[in-house]
Design brief:
alpha/beta; Rossmann fold; 11-stranded mixed beta sheet; 19 helices; elongated; binds ligand NAX; binds adenosine-5'-diphosphate; binds potassium ion; Ribokinase-like; NADP; nucleotide-binding
Length: 483
C-alpha cells in the first residue's frame, strides 16, 4: 500500500525527528537522495559536463535544491542557480558556491542550454499558484529541452488537496521526501508531478499508522479478491442483483451485467425492463420479471445505470434501498436517493457518482468538484453516511463519515472516458460486494481492476470500448494474481 500524509502530519513528524538530529541533517539527507535521483535521470556517466539549472525559492525547498546542486557540481556538473523570491537558504547557497556552482541574473540564457532543471521554488510551504515573478521563468523551464525535476512537490500545486489555483510548473519527475503528499496522488496536481520517487529520510517511525490517503498496489488487491474454494457453490460465492437499463438506455443494463459477471460473484440476477436483451447478450444471467419481493435472494444490489427518470424507477429504487444487503447506487439511481434514506438503511451503501453527478448531489457545479476532488468525496461520504467512489481522472474512494483515509486509484487511463465504462465498473464493484468485500475494498478493488483492464484493452494506446474493458477484466484479474 502506498500512503500519503497531509502537510501538518509531515511537519510534526519532521519536527520530532529533527530534534534528535544535528542541525541541517534532515535537509542533507533529502538533498543526497535528490542528487542521486538526478544522477539516475541524467544517465550513467552523463553527470560530468551536464548543465543543471536550479530554480530556488525563498524557503527550505530552495535549500534542498541548492544542496543537491552542490553535490552535482562536485560530480562535475555545471550548476547555475536562479534565485526567485528575494532571499535564498544561506547555508545551501554557500555550499553551492563552495562546490563551484554559480548564481545567474539571466535565467533564460541558462535555461536555454540546460539538461536538467531542479524546481525548488516551493514545496510544502507553498500557498496558491506560482507568484507572478516566477511564472515566466517556470514557463521557460518547461519550454526548454531539459528534464524538469520537482523538489518534493511541483511548485504551485496544493500539497494537501491536489488543487492547482493558478499556474504551476509541470515536472517530468518529482522526488519527494519522507512521505508522499496527498496532492502527488490526486488530480489535477498529480498531472504536474510526472514519475514519483520517494526518498527515505527516516520519517517512517514518526508518521501515524493511519494515513490521509492510500493507494492499493497489486499485492493488496490480490489479497482482497475473492477466490472460490473446493466447498464453493454459486450461492456461497454470492449473488449480485442488477437493476439497470430502460427502453431508452438498454445498453447500460448489458454493460452493468457484463461487469457483474466478471467480478467474482457466483451468479447475476437481473431485474429491469430489458431482460430479453440482457439474456441474449449474457445467457448465464438469471432474469427476474415478477414482483420485487419474489426476486430471490441476492447478497448485494447494483442499482441505477440507465434506469431513467419517472415513477417506475423511483418505486424500484425504494425496493432496492429497503433491502437489508449492501447496495451500490450509480448514475440515474443517484437521482432517487436522499441523505436521509441512505442514512436510514440497515446495510451499507456505496454511491458511485462521476463529477457531474457528485456536483448535483452536493449542490455545486462540476468544475468545483473536479478542482477539489478530495474535499468533494469526503463531503459526500459525510453527508450520506455512505461509502463514495468518485469517478474521473483520479478515482477516489472514501468510507462513510468522510474522515478516514481516502483510497486513490493508481491504475486507469484517460481512454476510460468512454460511454458505458462506468456501467461496467458499477457491475464489477457490486459483484465484489456480493462476494463479501466491504464497500471500501469492493469499490477500490473494482476501480483498480477496471483501470488495469482498460490499460490492457488500450494496449500501447488507442480507443477502447466499454465492452472491451469488460472483456479484459479476467486477464487483469490474472495479472494481479500472478504478477
Ligand atoms: N522541514 C524539514 O525538516 C525538511 C524540509 N524539507 C524541505 O522543505 C520544504 C518546506 O520548506 P518551507 O517550509 O521553507 O517552505 P517552502 O520552501 O515550500 O516555501 C515557503 C517559501 O516560499 C514562499 N512562497 C509561498 N508560496 C509561494 C508561491 N505561490 N510562489 C512563490 N513563492 C511562494 C514563501 O514566501 C516562503 O518563503 C519541503 O517541501 C522540503 O522540500 C526537506 O529539506 C526535508 C526536511
Ligand atoms: N480523464 C479520465 N482519466 C481516467 N479515467 C477516467 C477519465 N474520465 C473518466 N474516467 C473513468 O471512466 C469511467 C466513466 O464512467 P461514467 O462517467 O459513469 O461514464 P458512463 O456513464 O458513460 O458509463 C469511470 O470509471 C471514470 O473513472
Ligand atoms: K518544488
Amino acid at each position: 500500500m502506498r500512503t500519503a500524509h497531509p502537510v501538518e502530519t509531515v511537519r510534526a513528524a519532521e519536527a520530532e525527528l529533527m530534534a534528535l538530529l544535528p542541525d541541517g541533517a534532515l535537509m542533507r539527507r533529502a538533498a543526497a537522495g535528490l542528487a542521486a535521483a538526478c544522477c539516475s535521470l541524467l544517465g550513467k556517466g552523463r553527470v560530468y559536463g551536464s548543465r543543471v539549472v536550479l530554480l530556488v525559492g525563498s524557503g527550505d525547498n530552495g535549500g534542498d535544491a541548492l544542496y543537491a546542486g552542490a553535490r552535482l557540481a562536485r560530480r562535475g556538473a555545471g550548476v547555475t542557480a536562479v534565485l526567485l523570491g528575494g532571499r535564498a537558504h544561506g547555508a545551501g547557497l554557500a555550499a553551492l558556491r563552495a562546490a563551484g556552482g554559480r548564481v545567474t541574473e539571466d535565467p533564460y540564457e541558462a535555461l536555454a542550454a540546460a539538461d536538467l532543471v531542479l524546481d525548488g521554488i516551493t514545496g510544502i510551504g507553498g500557498r496558491g499558484g506560482l507568484r507572478p515573478e516566477a511564472v515566466p521563468v517556470a514557463r521557460a523551464a518547461r519550454g526548454s529541452d531539459a528534464v524538469v525535476v520537482a523538489v518534493d512537490l511541483p511548485s504551485g500545486v496544493d500539497a494537501d488537496t491536489g488543487e492547482v489555483d493558478g499556474e504551476a510548473l509541470r515536472a517530468d519527475a518529482t522526488v519527494t521526501f519522507g512521505a508522499y503528499k496527498p496532492g502527488l496522488l490526486v488530480d489535477p496536481a498529480r498531472e504536474y508531478a510526472g514519475a514519483l520517487r520517494l526518498v527515505d529520510i527516516g520519517l517512517g517511525p514518526y508518521l501515524p499508522a493511519i494515513p490521509g490517503l492510500e493507494a492499493l498496489q497489486h499485492q493488496d488487491v490480490a489479497r482482497l479478491l475473492p477466490e472460490p474454494g473446493a466447498e464453493s457453490d454459486k450461492y456461497r460465492r454470492g449473488v449480485v442483483g442488477v437493476y439497470a437499463g430502460s427502453d431508452r438506455y438498454r445498453g447500460a443494463a448489458v454493460l452493468a451485467v457484463a461487469g457483474a459477471l466478471r467480478g467474482g460473484a457466483g451468479a447475476v440476477r437481473y431485474l429491469g425492463r430489458v431482460g430479453d436483451m440482457v439474456v441474449r447478450a449474457h445467457p448465464e444471467v438469471l432474469v427476474h420479471t415478477g414482483p420485487w419481493d419474489a426476486a430471490g435472494r441476492v447478497q448485494a444490489w447494483v442499482a441505477g445505470p440507465g434506469i431513467g427518470e419517472g415513477s417506475d424507477p423511483e418505486t424500484a429504487m425504494g425496493h432496492v434501498l429497503a433491502a437489508d444487503v449492501p447496495v451500490l447506487v450509480d448514475a440515474d439511481g443517484l437521482r432517487h436517493v436522499t441523505p436521509g434514506a441512505v442514512r436510514e438503511r440497515s446495510a451499507p451503501t456505496l454511491l458511485t457518482p462521476h463529477a457531474g453527478e457528485a456536483a448535483a448531489l452536493l449542490g455545486t457545479d462540476r468544475a468545483a468538484v473536479e478542482a477539489g476532488r478530495l474535499a468533494a468525496v469526503r463531503a459526500l461520504a459525510a453527508r450520506y453516511g455512505a461509502t463514495v467512489l468518485l469517478k474521473g481522472s483520479t478515482t477516489l474512494v472514501c468510507g462513510p463519515g468522510g474522515t478516514g483515509p481516502v483510497r486513490v486509484n493508481p491504475t486507469g487511463t484517460p481512454w476510460l472516458a468512454t460511454a458505458g465504462s462506468g456501467d461496467v465498473l458499477s457491475g464489477l464493484a457490486g459483484s465484489l460486494l456480493a462476494a463479501g468485500l466491504d464497500p471500501v475494498d469492493a469499490a477500490s478493488c473494482a476501480a483498480y481492476l477496471h483501470g488495469l483492464a482498460a490499460r490492457r484493452a488500450a494496449g500501447a494506446g488507442g480507443p477502447i470500448t466499454a465492452s472491451g474493458v469488460a472483456d479484459a477484466l479476467p486477464a487483469a484479474w490474472r495479472d494481479i494474481r500472478e504478477p
